[in-house]
Amino acid sequence: MRVCEGIPQGEKSPPGSLRSISILDRLLLTVPVWLQLSINPATALHILQREPPGTFLVRKSRTSQKDVLCVRLADDSLPSFVQQFGIRQEHSSKSTTYRAVLL
Question: The SH2 domain covers which part of the protein (predicted)?
């Protein structure tokens, strides 16, 4: 799932297209695509290797049991073309906050 796609200025998206809804709604509608809690780190790298920069998925860490955000980077020449962030959940009486922390 890529969240950085936008509509060129001055263009309107066709009714019913994914671009006509908010980013949050797009994320919610595509949860089955990017929420891949059962895959391991090697599988995440393999999947993201074939995808364009900005593509991401969320998997479960095997050691900490926290979720991990894996994002495909633009530069293929780097040793790792995927950046991984631990997702920390913080609860309060009114809401739950999620923070991505560089691993």
Answer: 39-94
